[in-house]
Amino acid sequence: MMLSQANAALRPVSRLGGVRFMSAAVSDEVKMLEKLLAEAKERDAGKCAEESAAEAAEVAAAGPKFNIGTFNAISSAGLNTFPTRKYEIVPMADKSDEEIHAILLRSHKLSGDQVPDTTRAVARCGSGTNNIDVAALTERGIPVFNTPGANANAVKELSICGLLLASRGIVEGINHVGTIVKEDGEDFAKCKKRVESDKKMFVGRELTGKTLGVIGLGHIGASVAQTAIALGMNVTGFDPAISLEGAWRLPGDILKRASSLEQLVRESDYISLHVPYIKDATHHLINADMLKAMKPNAAIINFARGELVDSAAMRQLLESGDRTGRYITDFVDESLHDHPKVITMPHLGASTAEAEENAASMAAMEIMDFIETGTIQNSVNFPTAKLDRLPAESRRICIVNRNVPGMLGLITSTLGRANINIMQQINVSRDNIAYNVVDIADSHSPEDLAKLQDDISKLDGVISSRIVSGKDGKPGFFYVNA
Ligand SMILES: NC(=O)C1=CN([C@@H]2O[C@H](COP(=O)(O)OP(=O)(O)OC[C@H]3O[C@@H](n4cnc5c(N)ncnc54)[C@H](O)[C@@H]3O)[C@@H](O)[C@H]2O)C=CC1
Ligand SMILES: O=C(O)C(=O)COP(=O)(O)O
Protein backbone atom coordinates (compact mmCIF):
# COMPACT_ATOMS: atom_id res chain seq x y z
CA MET A 1 0.00 0.00 0.00
CA MET A 2 1.38 3.44 -0.92
CA LEU A 3 1.60 6.22 1.63
CA SER A 4 -1.40 7.98 0.13
CA GLN A 5 -3.47 4.80 0.55
CA ALA A 6 -2.36 4.51 4.17
CA ASN A 7 -3.39 8.10 4.75
CA ALA A 8 -6.75 7.40 3.17
CA ALA A 9 -7.17 4.46 5.56
CA LEU A 10 -6.55 6.78 8.49
CA ARG A 11 -9.27 9.19 7.54
CA PRO A 12 -12.04 7.47 9.57
CA VAL A 13 -9.85 7.70 12.71
CA SER A 14 -9.32 11.41 12.30
CA ARG A 15 -13.07 11.75 12.14
CA LEU A 16 -13.05 10.46 15.76
CA GLY A 17 -11.25 13.64 16.75
CA GLY A 18 -13.87 14.66 19.28
CA VAL A 19 -13.91 11.25 21.12
CA ARG A 20 -11.74 11.39 24.28
CA PHE A 21 -11.89 7.67 25.32
CA MET A 22 -11.60 5.15 22.51
CA SER A 23 -13.22 1.73 22.70
CA ALA A 24 -10.93 -1.40 22.55
CA ALA A 25 -12.13 -2.09 18.98
CA VAL A 26 -11.27 1.42 17.89
CA SER A 27 -7.90 1.22 19.67
CA ASP A 28 -7.06 -2.01 17.75
CA GLU A 29 -8.04 -0.33 14.51
CA VAL A 30 -5.73 2.59 15.28
CA LYS A 31 -2.82 0.22 16.03
CA MET A 32 -3.38 -1.63 12.78
CA LEU A 33 -3.50 1.58 10.79
CA GLU A 34 -0.33 2.87 12.53
CA LYS A 35 1.44 -0.34 11.47
CA LEU A 36 0.21 0.10 7.91
CA LEU A 37 1.43 3.68 7.88
CA ALA A 38 4.89 2.71 9.17
CA GLU A 39 5.17 0.03 6.48
CA ALA A 40 4.08 2.47 3.80
CA LYS A 41 6.63 5.04 4.98
CA GLU A 42 9.39 2.45 4.78
CA ARG A 43 8.37 1.55 1.22
CA ASP A 44 8.20 5.22 0.30
CA ALA A 45 11.69 5.83 1.65
CA GLY A 46 12.87 2.96 -0.56
CA LYS A 47 11.17 4.55 -3.54
CA CYS A 48 12.76 7.95 -2.76
CA ALA A 49 16.16 6.29 -2.67
CA GLU A 50 15.40 4.64 -6.03
CA GLU A 51 14.33 8.00 -7.47
CA SER A 52 17.42 9.82 -6.21
CA ALA A 53 19.58 7.01 -7.63
CA ALA A 54 17.84 7.47 -11.01
CA GLU A 55 18.37 11.22 -10.79
CA ALA A 56 22.03 10.75 -9.88
CA ALA A 57 22.41 8.39 -12.86
CA GLU A 58 20.86 11.03 -15.11
CA VAL A 59 23.23 13.68 -13.76
CA ALA A 60 26.19 11.35 -14.27
CA ALA A 61 25.04 10.58 -17.83
CA ALA A 62 24.85 14.30 -18.57
CA GLY A 63 28.61 14.46 -17.99
CA PRO A 64 30.50 17.02 -16.01
CA LYS A 65 28.65 20.26 -15.42
CA PHE A 66 29.43 23.51 -17.17
CA ASN A 67 30.29 26.32 -14.79
CA ILE A 68 28.75 29.71 -15.53
CA GLY A 69 30.61 32.52 -13.79
CA THR A 70 28.61 35.65 -12.96
CA PHE A 71 29.45 39.27 -12.26
CA ASN A 72 26.77 41.75 -11.09
CA ALA A 73 23.27 40.87 -9.90
CA ILE A 74 21.87 38.72 -12.70
CA SER A 75 18.10 38.15 -12.67
CA SER A 76 17.16 34.76 -11.25
CA ALA A 77 14.84 34.31 -14.24
CA GLY A 78 17.97 34.11 -16.37
CA LEU A 79 19.99 31.96 -13.99
CA ASN A 80 17.09 29.52 -13.65
CA THR A 81 17.14 29.04 -17.42
CA PHE A 82 20.24 26.86 -16.95
CA PRO A 83 19.17 23.29 -16.05
CA THR A 84 20.87 22.41 -12.77
CA ARG A 85 21.78 18.91 -13.93
CA LYS A 86 24.07 20.38 -16.60
CA TYR A 87 25.08 23.79 -15.26
CA GLU A 88 26.45 25.30 -12.07
CA ILE A 89 26.24 29.03 -11.35
CA VAL A 90 29.45 30.36 -9.83
CA PRO A 91 29.48 34.00 -8.63
CA MET A 92 32.91 35.27 -9.67
CA ALA A 93 33.20 37.41 -6.53
CA ASP A 94 33.52 34.14 -4.56
CA LYS A 95 36.85 33.56 -6.30
CA SER A 96 36.10 29.88 -6.61
CA ASP A 97 38.67 27.46 -8.01
CA GLU A 98 36.10 26.03 -10.43
CA GLU A 99 36.89 26.00 -14.13
CA ILE A 100 34.69 28.71 -15.64
CA HIS A 101 33.26 27.79 -19.05
CA ALA A 102 31.20 30.92 -19.70
CA ILE A 103 30.64 34.29 -18.05
CA LEU A 104 27.42 36.26 -17.63
CA LEU A 105 27.65 39.93 -16.64
CA ARG A 106 26.00 43.35 -16.79
CA SER A 107 28.00 46.58 -16.37
CA HIS A 108 30.99 45.02 -14.58
CA LYS A 109 34.22 46.23 -16.24
CA LEU A 110 35.66 42.99 -17.56
CA SER A 111 39.34 42.92 -18.42
CA GLY A 112 40.95 40.06 -20.34
CA ASP A 113 42.80 38.76 -17.28
CA GLN A 114 39.50 38.25 -15.40
CA VAL A 115 38.55 35.68 -18.02
CA PRO A 116 40.06 32.26 -17.23
CA ASP A 117 41.63 30.11 -19.96
CA THR A 118 38.80 27.60 -19.70
CA THR A 119 36.19 30.22 -20.65
CA ARG A 120 34.56 29.72 -24.05
CA ALA A 121 32.01 32.57 -24.13
CA VAL A 122 31.03 35.83 -22.44
CA ALA A 123 27.49 37.23 -22.49
CA ARG A 124 26.46 40.77 -21.58
CA CYS A 125 22.92 40.77 -20.17
CA GLY A 126 22.21 44.05 -21.92
CA SER A 127 23.15 46.01 -25.00
CA GLY A 128 26.36 48.01 -24.58
CA THR A 129 29.60 45.99 -24.48
CA ASN A 130 32.03 48.87 -23.93
CA ASN A 131 32.66 47.56 -20.39
CA ILE A 132 34.24 44.41 -21.85
CA ASP A 133 37.72 44.14 -23.37
CA VAL A 134 36.23 42.66 -26.54
CA ALA A 135 39.49 42.99 -28.54
CA ALA A 136 41.44 40.89 -26.00
CA LEU A 137 38.74 38.20 -26.00
CA THR A 138 38.55 38.13 -29.82
CA GLU A 139 42.30 37.56 -29.89
CA ARG A 140 41.74 34.52 -27.64
CA GLY A 141 38.92 33.17 -29.80
CA ILE A 142 36.18 33.92 -27.25
CA PRO A 143 32.85 35.19 -28.60
CA VAL A 144 31.14 38.03 -26.73
CA PHE A 145 27.33 38.04 -26.87
CA ASN A 146 24.84 40.77 -26.01
CA THR A 147 21.03 40.91 -25.89
CA PRO A 148 19.88 43.59 -28.35
CA GLY A 149 16.29 44.67 -27.78
CA ALA A 150 15.86 42.84 -24.46
CA ASN A 151 15.96 46.04 -22.42
CA ALA A 152 14.91 48.51 -25.16
CA ASN A 153 11.45 49.22 -23.76
CA ALA A 154 12.83 50.12 -20.33
CA VAL A 155 15.32 52.57 -21.85
CA LYS A 156 12.65 53.99 -24.17
CA GLU A 157 10.36 54.70 -21.21
CA LEU A 158 13.11 56.47 -19.25
CA SER A 159 14.11 58.47 -22.34
CA ILE A 160 10.52 59.71 -22.67
CA CYS A 161 10.70 60.59 -18.99
CA GLY A 162 13.94 62.44 -19.86
CA LEU A 163 12.06 64.48 -22.48
CA LEU A 164 9.51 65.48 -19.83
CA LEU A 165 12.22 66.29 -17.28
CA ALA A 166 13.82 68.51 -19.90
CA SER A 167 10.61 70.31 -20.81
CA ARG A 168 8.84 70.83 -17.46
CA GLY A 169 10.09 72.06 -14.11
CA ILE A 170 9.51 68.68 -12.49
CA VAL A 171 12.73 68.17 -10.52
CA GLU A 172 13.13 71.88 -9.72
CA GLY A 173 9.47 72.06 -8.61
CA ILE A 174 9.77 68.99 -6.39
CA ASN A 175 12.93 70.39 -4.80
CA HIS A 176 11.21 73.76 -4.27
CA VAL A 177 8.26 72.16 -2.46
CA GLY A 178 10.75 70.39 -0.22
CA THR A 179 12.50 73.66 0.61
CA ILE A 180 9.25 75.52 1.34
CA VAL A 181 7.87 72.75 3.56
CA LYS A 182 11.15 72.83 5.47
CA GLU A 183 10.94 76.61 5.85
CA ASP A 184 7.20 77.06 6.45
CA GLY A 185 6.15 73.58 7.53
CA GLU A 186 4.92 74.83 10.86
CA ASP A 187 2.39 76.99 9.05
CA PHE A 188 1.02 74.73 6.34
CA ALA A 189 -1.62 77.22 5.14
CA LYS A 190 1.18 79.69 4.36
CA CYS A 191 3.30 76.94 2.83
CA LYS A 192 0.48 75.89 0.44
CA LYS A 193 -0.09 79.51 -0.60
CA ARG A 194 3.60 80.01 -1.35
CA VAL A 195 3.85 76.79 -3.35
CA GLU A 196 0.83 77.82 -5.44
CA SER A 197 2.18 81.31 -6.03
CA ASP A 198 5.71 80.10 -6.87
CA LYS A 199 4.53 77.70 -9.56
CA LYS A 200 5.11 80.50 -12.10
CA MET A 201 8.84 79.87 -11.57
CA PHE A 202 8.53 76.46 -13.19
CA VAL A 203 6.61 77.09 -16.39
CA GLY A 204 7.64 74.57 -19.05
CA ARG A 205 6.87 73.82 -22.66
CA GLU A 206 5.07 70.99 -24.40
CA LEU A 207 6.57 68.20 -26.46
CA THR A 208 3.82 68.15 -29.08
CA GLY A 209 4.88 69.94 -32.25
CA LYS A 210 8.58 70.11 -31.25
CA THR A 211 11.35 68.35 -33.11
CA LEU A 212 13.17 65.40 -31.58
CA GLY A 213 16.46 64.31 -33.16
CA VAL A 214 17.22 60.65 -32.51
CA ILE A 215 20.88 59.69 -32.95
CA GLY A 216 21.15 55.92 -33.47
CA LEU A 217 18.06 54.15 -34.80
CA GLY A 218 18.64 50.68 -33.37
CA HIS A 219 16.36 48.86 -30.93
CA ILE A 220 16.07 51.76 -28.47
CA GLY A 221 16.26 54.69 -30.90
CA ALA A 222 13.52 53.26 -33.14
CA SER A 223 11.26 52.68 -30.14
CA VAL A 224 11.85 56.22 -28.82
CA ALA A 225 11.06 57.59 -32.31
CA GLN A 226 7.78 55.63 -32.43
CA THR A 227 6.60 56.88 -29.05
CA ALA A 228 7.67 60.48 -29.71
CA ILE A 229 5.64 60.43 -32.93
CA ALA A 230 2.66 59.16 -30.94
CA LEU A 231 3.13 62.14 -28.59
CA GLY A 232 2.82 64.49 -31.57
CA MET A 233 6.52 65.28 -32.01
CA ASN A 234 8.28 65.65 -35.35
CA VAL A 235 11.11 63.14 -35.39
CA THR A 236 14.35 63.31 -37.32
CA GLY A 237 16.75 60.38 -37.24
CA PHE A 238 20.44 59.88 -37.97
CA ASP A 239 22.08 56.48 -38.31
CA PRO A 240 24.59 55.97 -41.12
CA ALA A 241 25.20 52.34 -40.11
CA ILE A 242 21.59 51.19 -39.70
CA SER A 243 21.03 47.47 -40.31
CA LEU A 244 18.44 46.24 -42.80
CA GLU A 245 16.49 44.67 -39.93
CA GLY A 246 16.70 48.00 -38.05
CA ALA A 247 15.41 49.93 -41.05
CA TRP A 248 12.31 47.68 -41.16
CA ARG A 249 11.52 48.59 -37.55
CA LEU A 250 11.31 52.33 -38.33
CA PRO A 251 8.13 54.30 -38.84
CA GLY A 252 9.52 55.12 -42.31
CA ASP A 253 6.76 57.32 -43.68
CA ILE A 254 6.78 59.83 -40.80
CA LEU A 255 10.40 59.77 -39.67
CA LYS A 256 12.59 62.36 -41.36
CA ARG A 257 16.14 61.30 -42.21
CA ALA A 258 18.92 63.78 -41.40
CA SER A 259 21.70 63.87 -43.97
CA SER A 260 24.33 64.62 -41.30
CA LEU A 261 24.71 64.69 -37.56
CA GLU A 262 25.14 68.44 -37.71
CA GLN A 263 21.88 68.92 -39.59
CA LEU A 264 20.04 66.89 -36.94
CA VAL A 265 21.67 68.83 -34.12
CA ARG A 266 20.93 72.22 -35.76
CA GLU A 267 17.24 71.50 -36.34
CA SER A 268 16.24 69.71 -33.12
CA ASP A 269 14.58 71.00 -29.96
CA TYR A 270 15.48 67.76 -28.18
CA ILE A 271 18.34 65.40 -29.04
CA SER A 272 18.25 61.83 -27.76
CA LEU A 273 21.36 59.64 -27.97
CA HIS A 274 21.04 55.91 -28.66
CA VAL A 275 24.38 54.83 -30.11
CA PRO A 276 26.98 52.47 -28.66
CA TYR A 277 30.10 53.94 -27.11
CA ILE A 278 33.09 52.92 -29.23
CA LYS A 279 36.33 54.65 -28.26
CA ASP A 280 37.61 55.15 -31.80
CA ALA A 281 34.22 55.99 -33.32
CA THR A 282 31.69 57.63 -31.00
CA HIS A 283 33.86 59.19 -28.27
CA HIS A 284 32.58 62.77 -27.79
CA LEU A 285 30.17 62.40 -30.69
CA ILE A 286 28.57 65.50 -29.21
CA ASN A 287 31.65 67.73 -29.15
CA ALA A 288 32.09 71.50 -28.77
CA ASP A 289 31.19 72.15 -32.43
CA MET A 290 27.97 70.13 -32.20
CA LEU A 291 27.04 71.86 -28.95
CA LYS A 292 27.55 75.26 -30.55
CA ALA A 293 25.36 74.24 -33.50
CA MET A 294 22.41 73.49 -31.18
CA LYS A 295 19.43 75.80 -30.74
CA PRO A 296 19.87 77.79 -27.47
CA ASN A 297 16.92 76.02 -25.84
CA ALA A 298 17.67 72.53 -27.20
CA ALA A 299 17.99 69.75 -24.62
CA ILE A 300 20.16 66.65 -24.77
CA ILE A 301 18.84 63.37 -23.41
CA ASN A 302 21.64 60.85 -22.88
CA PHE A 303 20.62 57.39 -21.72
CA ALA A 304 23.31 55.78 -23.88
CA ARG A 305 26.79 56.43 -22.41
CA GLY A 306 28.38 59.42 -20.66
CA GLU A 307 31.48 59.41 -22.87
CA LEU A 308 29.39 60.24 -25.97
CA VAL A 309 29.25 63.85 -24.78
CA ASP A 310 32.23 66.15 -24.24
CA SER A 311 31.26 67.14 -20.71
CA ALA A 312 33.86 69.92 -20.34
CA ALA A 313 32.55 71.57 -23.53
CA MET A 314 28.99 71.06 -22.29
CA ARG A 315 29.79 72.77 -18.98
CA GLN A 316 31.35 75.68 -20.82
CA LEU A 317 28.30 76.03 -23.04
CA LEU A 318 25.84 75.80 -20.14
CA GLU A 319 27.74 78.56 -18.37
CA SER A 320 27.82 80.83 -21.41
CA GLY A 321 24.59 82.39 -20.13
CA ASP A 322 22.17 82.42 -23.05
CA ARG A 323 21.26 78.72 -22.86
CA THR A 324 18.03 77.41 -21.44
CA GLY A 325 18.26 73.84 -22.73
CA ARG A 326 18.97 71.11 -20.19
CA TYR A 327 21.10 67.99 -20.16
CA ILE A 328 19.40 64.85 -18.81
CA THR A 329 21.43 61.69 -18.28
CA ASP A 330 21.77 58.48 -16.28
CA PHE A 331 25.57 58.72 -16.20
CA VAL A 332 27.21 60.67 -13.41
CA ASP A 333 29.85 63.12 -14.61
CA GLU A 334 32.17 64.94 -12.24
CA SER A 335 32.13 68.18 -14.23
CA LEU A 336 28.36 68.30 -14.79
CA HIS A 337 26.45 66.68 -11.92
CA ASP A 338 26.11 69.87 -9.85
CA HIS A 339 25.08 72.20 -12.67
CA PRO A 340 21.50 73.55 -12.30
CA LYS A 341 20.69 72.79 -15.94
CA VAL A 342 21.81 69.19 -15.60
CA ILE A 343 19.64 66.38 -14.23
CA THR A 344 21.65 63.28 -13.38
CA MET A 345 20.23 60.04 -12.09
CA PRO A 346 21.86 56.65 -11.45
CA HIS A 347 22.44 54.35 -14.43
CA LEU A 348 18.78 53.28 -14.38
CA GLY A 349 17.91 52.93 -18.08
CA ALA A 350 17.60 49.15 -17.99
CA SER A 351 16.75 48.78 -14.30
CA THR A 352 13.25 47.32 -14.49
CA ALA A 353 12.27 43.82 -13.41
CA GLU A 354 11.08 43.10 -16.96
CA ALA A 355 14.25 44.28 -18.69
CA GLU A 356 16.52 42.47 -16.24
CA GLU A 357 14.59 39.22 -16.73
CA ASN A 358 14.49 39.56 -20.51
CA ALA A 359 18.17 40.34 -20.83
CA ALA A 360 19.35 37.61 -18.44
CA SER A 361 17.10 34.94 -20.02
CA MET A 362 18.20 35.87 -23.53
CA ALA A 363 21.89 35.83 -22.52
CA ALA A 364 21.44 32.42 -20.85
CA MET A 365 19.82 30.99 -24.00
CA GLU A 366 22.64 32.35 -26.17
CA ILE A 367 25.28 30.79 -23.90
CA MET A 368 23.52 27.40 -23.73
CA ASP A 369 23.04 27.36 -27.49
CA PHE A 370 26.71 28.10 -28.02
CA ILE A 371 27.97 25.61 -25.44
CA GLU A 372 25.70 22.77 -26.51
CA THR A 373 25.46 23.26 -30.27
CA GLY A 374 28.14 25.77 -31.30
CA THR A 375 25.45 28.19 -32.55
CA ILE A 376 26.45 31.87 -32.53
CA GLN A 377 23.72 34.49 -32.45
CA ASN A 378 23.97 38.11 -31.29
CA SER A 379 27.72 38.16 -30.93
CA VAL A 380 29.50 41.51 -31.17
CA ASN A 381 32.81 40.04 -32.32
CA PHE A 382 32.00 36.69 -33.99
CA PRO A 383 30.02 35.89 -37.14
CA THR A 384 26.51 34.51 -36.87
CA ALA A 385 26.66 30.71 -37.24
CA LYS A 386 23.91 28.15 -37.17
CA LEU A 387 24.19 24.63 -38.47
CA ASP A 388 21.22 22.30 -38.71
CA ARG A 389 20.57 20.01 -35.75
CA LEU A 390 23.21 17.42 -35.16
CA PRO A 391 22.56 14.41 -37.35
CA ALA A 392 22.08 11.18 -35.38
CA GLU A 393 25.27 9.30 -34.57
CA SER A 394 27.53 12.30 -35.03
CA ARG A 395 30.02 14.52 -33.25
CA ARG A 396 30.36 18.26 -33.72
CA ILE A 397 33.69 20.05 -33.84
CA CYS A 398 33.87 23.86 -33.56
CA ILE A 399 37.06 25.54 -34.65
CA VAL A 400 38.00 29.22 -34.32
CA ASN A 401 40.82 30.36 -36.59
CA ARG A 402 42.37 33.49 -38.00
CA ASN A 403 40.59 34.65 -41.13
CA VAL A 404 43.48 34.00 -43.54
CA PRO A 405 43.48 32.16 -46.89
CA GLY A 406 43.87 28.39 -46.93
CA MET A 407 42.60 27.60 -43.41
CA LEU A 408 39.54 25.65 -44.54
CA GLY A 409 41.74 23.47 -46.76
CA LEU A 410 44.16 22.79 -43.88
CA ILE A 411 41.30 21.78 -41.58
CA THR A 412 39.54 19.51 -44.07
CA SER A 413 42.77 17.79 -45.10
CA THR A 414 43.57 17.14 -41.42
CA LEU A 415 40.20 15.38 -41.17
CA GLY A 416 40.89 13.57 -44.44
CA ARG A 417 44.28 12.34 -43.25
CA ALA A 418 42.54 10.92 -40.17
CA ASN A 419 40.17 9.14 -42.56
CA ILE A 420 37.21 11.10 -41.19
CA ASN A 421 34.29 11.94 -43.42
CA ILE A 422 32.51 15.31 -43.02
CA MET A 423 28.69 14.98 -42.73
CA GLN A 424 27.95 18.71 -42.84
CA GLN A 425 29.90 21.88 -42.21
CA ILE A 426 29.83 25.68 -42.28
CA ASN A 427 32.59 28.23 -42.45
CA VAL A 428 31.78 31.87 -41.65
CA SER A 429 33.94 34.87 -40.91
CA ARG A 430 33.90 38.35 -39.45
CA ASP A 431 36.85 40.72 -39.61
CA ASN A 432 39.93 38.74 -38.45
CA ILE A 433 38.01 35.75 -37.12
CA ALA A 434 36.72 32.66 -38.95
CA TYR A 435 34.52 30.01 -37.36
CA ASN A 436 33.98 26.46 -38.55
CA VAL A 437 31.37 23.97 -37.42
CA VAL A 438 32.04 20.46 -38.67
CA ASP A 439 29.85 17.39 -38.03
CA ILE A 440 31.52 14.00 -38.35
CA ALA A 441 30.32 10.44 -37.81
CA ASP A 442 30.44 9.29 -34.20
CA SER A 443 32.30 6.10 -35.00
CA HIS A 444 35.63 7.32 -33.71
CA SER A 445 37.13 6.44 -30.37
CA PRO A 446 37.74 9.15 -27.76
CA GLU A 447 41.48 8.60 -28.28
CA ASP A 448 41.16 9.17 -32.05
CA LEU A 449 39.11 12.30 -31.45
CA ALA A 450 41.63 13.62 -28.93
CA LYS A 451 44.40 13.03 -31.49
CA LEU A 452 42.33 14.76 -34.19
CA GLN A 453 41.74 17.77 -31.97
CA ASP A 454 45.41 17.88 -31.12
CA ASP A 455 46.32 17.89 -34.83
CA ILE A 456 43.75 20.64 -35.58
CA SER A 457 45.02 22.71 -32.67
CA LYS A 458 48.56 22.57 -34.03
CA LEU A 459 47.55 24.04 -37.40
CA ASP A 460 49.04 27.48 -37.87
CA GLY A 461 46.16 29.96 -37.55
CA VAL A 462 43.84 27.84 -35.37
CA ILE A 463 42.97 29.74 -32.18
CA SER A 464 40.75 27.25 -30.38
CA SER A 465 38.72 24.12 -30.93
CA ARG A 466 36.00 22.21 -29.11
CA ILE A 467 34.13 18.97 -29.56
CA VAL A 468 30.72 20.01 -28.33
CA SER A 469 28.50 16.98 -28.37
CA GLY A 470 28.05 13.32 -28.91
CA LYS A 471 25.43 11.19 -30.61
CA ASP A 472 22.87 11.78 -27.88
CA GLY A 473 23.35 15.53 -28.01
CA LYS A 474 25.04 15.62 -24.61
CA PRO A 475 28.13 17.76 -24.07
CA GLY A 476 31.15 15.62 -24.77
CA PHE A 477 34.74 16.74 -24.84
CA PHE A 478 35.54 20.21 -23.76
CA TYR A 479 39.11 20.98 -24.61
CA VAL A 480 41.02 24.10 -23.65
CA ASN A 481 42.28 26.52 -26.26
CA ALA A 482 45.16 25.58 -28.50
N1 LIG B 1 21.28 53.63 -19.87
C1 LIG B 1 21.10 52.35 -19.94
O1 LIG B 1 20.81 51.69 -18.94
C2 LIG B 1 21.23 51.66 -21.25
C3 LIG B 1 22.01 52.19 -22.23
N2 LIG B 1 22.11 51.54 -23.44
C4 LIG B 1 22.98 52.17 -24.47
O2 LIG B 1 22.22 52.37 -25.64
C5 LIG B 1 22.98 51.96 -26.76
C6 LIG B 1 22.06 51.57 -27.90
O3 LIG B 1 21.35 50.40 -27.55
P1 LIG B 1 20.47 49.58 -28.61
O4 LIG B 1 19.50 50.47 -29.27
O5 LIG B 1 19.99 48.38 -27.90
O6 LIG B 1 21.60 49.17 -29.66
P2 LIG B 1 21.42 48.79 -31.20
O7 LIG B 1 22.67 48.09 -31.57
O8 LIG B 1 20.13 48.14 -31.44
O9 LIG B 1 21.40 50.23 -31.92
C7 LIG B 1 22.49 51.08 -32.00
C8 LIG B 1 22.34 51.87 -33.29
O10 LIG B 1 23.32 52.92 -33.29
C9 LIG B 1 23.75 53.08 -34.64
N3 LIG B 1 25.02 53.81 -34.67
C10 LIG B 1 26.26 53.36 -34.43
N4 LIG B 1 27.15 54.35 -34.55
C11 LIG B 1 26.44 55.47 -34.89
C12 LIG B 1 26.80 56.82 -35.15
N5 LIG B 1 28.07 57.23 -35.09
N6 LIG B 1 25.83 57.70 -35.48
C13 LIG B 1 24.52 57.31 -35.54
N7 LIG B 1 24.13 56.02 -35.32
C14 LIG B 1 25.08 55.13 -34.99
C15 LIG B 1 23.85 51.66 -35.16
O11 LIG B 1 23.87 51.62 -36.58
C16 LIG B 1 22.60 51.02 -34.56
O12 LIG B 1 21.51 51.11 -35.44
C17 LIG B 1 23.83 50.81 -26.21
O13 LIG B 1 25.01 50.63 -26.97
C18 LIG B 1 24.14 51.28 -24.82
O14 LIG B 1 25.34 52.04 -24.80
C19 LIG B 1 21.44 50.40 -23.70
C20 LIG B 1 20.64 49.82 -22.76
C21 LIG B 1 20.52 50.39 -21.42
O1 LIG C 1 22.34 47.32 -21.60
C1 LIG C 1 23.09 48.29 -21.42
O2 LIG C 1 23.86 48.74 -22.29
C2 LIG C 1 23.09 48.99 -20.12
O3 LIG C 1 23.69 50.02 -19.98
C3 LIG C 1 22.36 48.36 -18.99
O4 LIG C 1 23.24 48.30 -17.91
P1 LIG C 1 22.89 47.42 -16.61
O5 LIG C 1 22.77 46.02 -17.06
O6 LIG C 1 21.62 47.97 -16.06
O7 LIG C 1 24.06 47.64 -15.69
Textual characterization of the structure:
This protein is an alpha/beta fold. It folds into four domains: 3-51; 63-151 and 351-382, NAD(P)-binding Rossmann-like Domain (Rossmann fold); 153-169 and 204-344, Rossmann fold; 391-482, ACT domain (Alpha-Beta Plaits, 2-Layer Sandwich). The protein has 15 helices and 16 strands. The protein has helices at residues 3-14, 24-61, 76-79, 134-139, 152-167, 170-184, 188-198, 219-230, 244-248, 261-267, 288-293, 311-318, 353-373, 407-417, 446-457, and strands spanning 66-70, 87-91, 102-105, 121-124, 144-145, 211-215, 234-238, 256-257, 270-273, 299-302, 327-329, 342-344, 394-402, 422-430, 433-441, 462-469. A seven-stranded parallel β-sheet has the order 8-7-6-9-10-11-12, sandwiched between helices. Helix 9 (244-248) links the parallel strand 7 and strand 8 (256-257). Helix 1 runs antiparallel to helix 2, helix 5 crosses helix 8 (219-230) and helix 6 packs antiparallel against helix 7 (188-198). The longest helix is centred in the N-terminal third of the chain and has 38 residues, at 24-61. The protein is globular. The relative contact order is 0.10. The structure holds 1,4-dihydronicotinamide adenine dinucleotide and 2-oxo-3-(phosphonooxy)propanoic acid. 1,4-dihydronicotinamide adenine dinucleotide binds next to helix 5 and helix 8. The site of 2-oxo-3-(phosphonooxy)propanoic acid has 10 residues, from loops.
